[in-house]
Amino acid sequence: MASRDRTARVAVLGTSVQRSRKERRPSRGRGPHVRRLVLLGLVLLALVLLTVSFRSPTSGALHDVQGYGASALRPFQIAAERVARPFRDAYDYVSGLTGAKSQNKKLRREVRQLRAQATANLAAARQVAELKALLRFEELKTFPKNYRAVNTTVISFPGTPFAQQVTIAAGSDSGIRLNTPVVTADGLIGRVTNVFPRTAQVTLLSDPESSVPAVDVTHGVSGLIRRGPRGTFDLDRVPKEAIVEKGDVIVTRGTVDRRLPDYYPYGIPIGSVLSASPSDIATFLTVQVKSYASFDQLDAVAALVPKK
């Protein structure tokens, strides 16, 4: 009897459980239809609201409802703006800083380019001015006769304080030979001591071994131009009884005896007398001369080549 009752109870419980499970299961075909109907209703409602809004742009119940809704949502909008403002400001700051750095880099690059262009223009303008001055020097009456000027530029300068040679961008292809005089628009600077087809080496007057026969055209006193103290020159071998005064003009003496031709033609400007004073122990006058040419700013020069 107990076993039969237990079996009946299990059967009844199993039947009831199975039925409850089947009843709780939703219908699979019913869910998608409901969702589609809800979506369709929302779309129709949106179309109706849009139509009503367009037909009554300035008044109407819908606009009143929109106004009430906007007023109700205004506090939330303000709160959202206050919360988002720090993040927006931080983004704007980072974005602006990145843009400023990029713009600054671009401006620096443009400034470098403009500075280089301006420097090149200034250098070219200075060179053009010196070349024009050389052309004017050729037109002067004091320009040596039977000579032509080979205008060129200095391409290298002394490597050490003791070296007094420069290199010019013209050589034997242009007619330059050894001992060719080299001048600027202001005056004599030296002579060619080594020559190549397209370049030549010029030994300056400031070289300790350099000496140039010169004459004081104001008083007709001759001497030798040599390197002097502190960037000046001395007019050496001037007798004590000679008259030499401050401001006298010194030029190259040129050839006196055809059997002993000079490297330098007559009349090339050298400088002016700074001072002239005798000495009790010296045999000659001490004559100090300031050069017309500036040896620290050599750029455009001219080599004087004989026409014959």
Describe the structure.
This protein is α+β, with helices and mostly antiparallel strands. The protein has a domain of 169 residues: Rod shape-determining protein MreC, domain 1 (Thrombin, subunit H, Beta Barrel). It has three helices and twelve strands; from the N terminus they run αααββββββββββββ. It has a six-stranded antiparallel β-barrel. Strands 6-7-8-11-10-9 form a six-stranded antiparallel β-barrel. It is rod-shaped and about 135 Å long. The model has no long low-confidence stretch (mean pLDDT 80).
* Biggest sheet strand line-up: 1-2-5-4-3-12
Strand content: 15-25%
The helix/strand class is alpha+beta
In helices, the fraction of residues equals: 40-55%
Q: What is the overall number of helices?
A: 3
Let me know the largest β-sheet.
6 strands, antiparallel, barrel
User: What is the N-to-C succession of helices and strands?
Assistant: HHHEEEEEEEEEEEE
The gross shape turns out to be rod-shaped
Topology-level CATH name of the domain at 140-308 = Thrombin, subunit H
CATH superfamily of the domain at 140-308: Rod shape-determining protein MreC, domain 1
pLDDT average, as an integer? 80
Q: What's the CATH architecture of the domain at 140-308?
A: Beta Barrel
Low-confidence stretches: none
- The rounded distance between the terminal residues' Cα atoms is 156 Å
Number of strands: 12
CATH class of the domain at 140-308: Mainly Beta
Radius of gyration: 51 Å
